[in-house]
Specification:
By secondary structure, this protein is mainly α. Helices cover about 85% and strands about 0% of the residues.
Length: about 400
């Protein structure tokens, strides 16, 4: 059970994630439907945000590994969200999106890596297993993602596009208030020692990159599937328009349950072996999703998708962190940057494959990419750093 004094921290994480989940899936819809821009401009905005957010994450990670406090960095992220949302409330135009929106929401996107790094510090101070605390944080973020997108589109439907950003402005103010009163001010990592050149250091770097490439492949598979499934269900299988929403609800519910189950499975099986089983399950689940022909099969497929992704979302970050214990903030930023890049690539790739073939083909390609992650982890397990890591 989560210790009661951790609930304020998890509340801060929930509200920060809620702010991001309200904005990220909504911006593309706003740019096209609200501003009347061409669809390709979504990629322009998303590309700028991704590049800038990755750069910010790397800089913040270096600062934290060198002993900087995460407290002001979280404040920067919350302030970025507030400025961007407020600007779009009062000036809902494309130039605002590409200036205040890009700068503010890029800074806001850094909060996830910073909060998970801070969570690692808190877990160490309270003698809580980092894998268990990662599970608590992932369950919190998944819950926020259950609420945020639905809230954005509901507000937009009832009150118009500008109301979404007004609502986000209010949530950002709450985020800033929680940050000021809840976030630990003095928590910080011990400054990392000077890097040791030589074979041992190189082995560690190779192990980290094996873990990152594995996460990249399985995350690309998930984003390809996630993008293609709604249109596959409605246009190619012939299910009713409300079906994708039901599938998403089932997926997210099972995902949270799987996240909470992860620490127990890690204790019994170990991270690396459990990750391998999860990747195999991903291949089978995505193959099943590509064969769905009925509403009942869709619900079962959504549950399988949620189960494998819930396990992966918790295991993946712990796996990457296990290869850079002397640079935990760097490893955490690597993980979140990888997810950000795969999210940027997955959507357009699914659309391109569907344009050339169909959405079912995009899902089958996703299954092949998931299989590649199995091969990478299987071959990577022979590397001495992977065999010797704490993820074994």
């Amino acid at each position: 059970m989560v210790r009661s004094h951790l609930l304020p921290f998890l509340s801060l994480l929930f509200v920060g994630t809620l702010c991001g989940s309200m904005i990220v899936p909504y911006m593309g819809f706003f740019i096209v439907d609200g501003l009347g821009r061409e669809p390709w401009t979504i990629s322009l905005y998303a590309g700028c945000v991704a590049v800038l957010a990755v750069a910010i994450n790397r800089v913040f990670a270096k600062w934290m590994d060198d002993g900087a406090r995460p407290f002001p960095l979280i404040g920067i992220a919350a302030a970025g969200c507030l400025v961007a949302a407020a600007a779009l409330t009062f000036a809902p135009a494309f130039w605002t999106v590409m200036t205040f929106g890009v700068l503010g929401f890029s800074a806001s996107a850094s909060a996830m890596a910073t909060m998970f790094s801070l969570g690692g510090i808190i877990a160490g101070q309270l003698d809580i297993a980092r894998t268990s605390f990662n599970a608590y944080m992932r369950a919190t973020t998944s819950t926020a993602w259950m609420v945020g997108p639905a809230a954005s589109f509901l507000v937009a439907d009832r009150f118009g596009h500008e109301a979404v950003f007004a609502f986000a402005t209010v949530m950002a103010l709450i985020w800033l208030s929680l940050w000021w009163w809840v976030a630990p001010r003095d928590a910080a990592l011990n400054p990392r020692p000077a890097p040791q050149p030589g074979a041992a250091h190189q082995v560690g770097r190779i192990g980290l990159w094996i873990a990152v490439v594995f996460v990249f492949c399985l995350s690309v598979a998930h984003f390809l599937t996630f993008t293609a499934l709604p249109l596959f269900f409605v246009q190619e299988v012939g299910l009713p328009g409300y079906a994708p929403g039901h599938a998403f609800s089932i997926k997210t519910f099972v995902e949270v349950l799987a996240i909470l189950l992860t620490p127990l499975l890690i204790a019994r099986i170990g991270i690396r072996r459990l990750l391998l089983a999860t990747a195999v399950l991903a291949v089978l689940a995505i193959q099943y999703l590509a064969s769905i022909q009925s509403y009942g099969q869709m619900l079962l497929g959504a549950a399988l998708e949620g189960f494998y992704y819930g396990l992966f979302s918790t295991l993946g970050i712990s796996f990457v962190q296990s290869f850079a214990e002397d640079r935990p903030a760097y490893a955490t930023a690597m993980y979140w940057n990888t997810l950000m890049v795969t999210g940027l690539l997955g959507g357009p790739a699914a659309g391109l494959i569907a344009q050339l073939y169909d959405f079912r083909t995009a899902i089958l390609v996703a299954s092949g990419v998931a299989l590649l992650s199995v091969i990478i982890l299987g071959l990577g397990a022979r590397h001495p750093q992977v065999r010797a890591s704490s993820a074994s």
